[in-house]
Amino acid sequence: MGNWGIAGRQRVIDEDQKLKLLQRMEAGETVSTLADEVGISRQRLYEWRDHLRLRGNLTSRRRGGPARSQELTGPRRCRAQSTRRHLRKRR
Predict the structure, then answer these.
(1) Per-residue pLDDT tens digits for 21-75
(2) Can you say whether residue 79 is alpha, beta or left, with left for phi > 0 and alpha for psi between -120 and 50 degrees?
(3) Residue ranges per structural domain of the chain
(4) Domain 1-62 of CATH type 3.30.70
(5) Cα torsion at 56, 28, 4, 64 (round to 10°)?
């Protein structure tokens, strides 16, 4: 599938590749086989499947903050700042 890194693991799997893997999973291929082929855990495939079912897409929710054009304002900004302060205090 390309873009292979250390120990045969793929560094980044784009949304199209994830969708193809999930289609193969739904078609009946074993999850273990698919996971081993790409170098990910079986749990990751189930997470992608559940994420797709719940949100309708596979975009990551973990990377970075909002785009600059979507700067937080008002109550959302206050909540984000409060969360950051809380996390800093816990260190």
Answers:
(1) 999 999 999 999 999 999 999 999 999 999 999 888 877 656 555 555 555 555 5
(2) alpha
(3) 1-62
(4) no
(5) 20
